[in-house]
Please model this.
Amino acid sequence: MKDGAEYLKSDEAAKLLRVSTHTLKNWRRYGSGPPFVRLGPTVVRYQRVELEEWIEARRRTAEGA
Model:
């Protein structure tokens, strides 16, 4: 673990992104969502800073941009 890194559970990440946990699961399945770490078959974590970077990378100033 990186020093000071905060890892969130799927429900916490979904709340931060304001999407459902089902949406996060679909994003993981299709590789279209934020980076995640799989610690076990049913244990997934998201690093808070990576979620924030993922959101920022999708910022747009106009439709279709």
